[in-house]
């Protein structure tokens, strides 16, 4: 290929780049993007602004009381539901901590009081408080909404009866 042919190829590429650049500048002048007033969605576990967290808290639905569901709860079914929990937790008396703490006796222990386990700062702030069935209900519904900043990434049990069954099972571990 002669040098004249190379010049035509290079000129064509440069012309295409200049046209693309000019088109980009013109499109930015014609269409101005407006920044969002608040995030469209917030990823669980990430830090967000104070307004976003208050908006989430206001939008979070109130959980139905768990006490009436506990009356007909099935601990055996609760034990079956906790198979998803066993990747991170143990349920045996004196069992080891894994990614999460051992849950034996959790319904009678205080929050953040499992020996030899490093809790998140969010959980440590509640150290010594006792787990009630309503708090366990909120935790099992969505740990990130119940206690923002927790290390637990489990999405929760959306069905109230499933939460009641799991709570009934945890109450048998004494």
Write up this protein:
The protein has helices spanning 3-30, 50-59, 67-70, 75-81, 121-124, 133-141, 143-146, 160-172. It is mainly alpha-helical. It has a domain at 65-172: Cytochrome c-like domain (Cytochrome Bc1 Complex, Chain D, domain 2, Orthogonal Bundle), CATH 1.10.760. Helix 4 crosses helix 8 (160-172) and helix 6 (133-141) crosses helix 8. The longest helix is centred in the first third of the chain and has 28 residues, at 3-30. It is elongated and about 90 Å long. The termini are far apart.
Provide key terms for this protein:
Cytochrome Bc1 Complex, Chain D, domain 2, 8 helices, 174 residues
| Structural class by SSE content | mainly alpha
Q: What's the shape?
A: elongated
Give the helix level as a range of percent: 40-55%
Low-confidence stretches: 48-53
* Total number of helices: 8
Q: Roughly what fraction of the amino acids lie in strands?
A: under 5%
Sequence-ordered SSE layout with sheet pairings:
Elements: H1 3-30, H2 50-59, H3 67-70, H4 75-81, H5 121-124, H6 133-141, H7 143-146, H8 160-172
In a few lines, what is going on in this structure?
Helix content is 45%, strand content 0%.
């Amino acid at each position: 290929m002669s040098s004249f042919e190379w010049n035509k190829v290079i000129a064509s590429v440069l012309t295409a780049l200049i046209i693309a650049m000019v088109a980009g500048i013109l499109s930015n002048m014609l269409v101005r993007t407006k920044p969002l007033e608040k995030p469209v969605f917030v990823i669980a576990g990430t830090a967000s602004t104070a307004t976003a967290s208050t908006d989430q808290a206001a939008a979070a639905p109130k959980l139905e009381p768990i006490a009436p569901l506990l009356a007909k709860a099935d601990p055996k079914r609760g034990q079956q539901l906790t198979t998803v929990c066993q990747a991170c937790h143990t349920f045996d008396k004196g069992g080891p901590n894994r990614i999460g703490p051992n849950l034996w006796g959790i319904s009678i222990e205080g929050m953040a009081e499992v020996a030899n386990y490093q809790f998140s700062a969010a959980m440590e702030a509640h150290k010594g408080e006792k787990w009630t069935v309503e708090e366990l209900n909120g935790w099992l519904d969505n740990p990130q909404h119940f206690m923002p900043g927790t290390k637990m990434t489990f999405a929760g049990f959306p069905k109230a009866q499933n939460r009641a069954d799991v709570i009934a099972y945890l109450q048998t571990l004494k």
